[in-house]
Amino acid sequence: MKLYPDEEFPLQLGSVVQMGTKTQFILERFNTGIIAAPGKRANMEDTFVVVQDMKLHPQLPVSIYCVLDGHGGEWCAVFLRQRFEAEMRRQLLDEKDGIYGSERKGLSEVVSKAFK
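Given the sequence above, the corresponding structure tokens read:
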């Protein structure tokens, strides 16, 4: 997709559009806006995860939007952010307990198991 017919670089999923020095947009499957402010703390301790498609089924895209609260320090939120998508996918696709598994569990049980 191009904004203008003579545009040199076409937009596609994953394209990053930089506006100034502090604002950027990523072209995704769904429009998602994120804004964060540290409040009364000196540093931002919260983070987020946005997964446009978990790739659980080729004809059923599943998105995940998650806010991770730092609770007095960013280390836990950053740890979870780095592992969230892979661990959720692993649990959801588990051969025994996952969504297609032989002993299928409810979604809340699968999510809980991902972070025990």
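The first strand starts at residue 16 and ends at 19. Try to locate this feature in the token string yourself.
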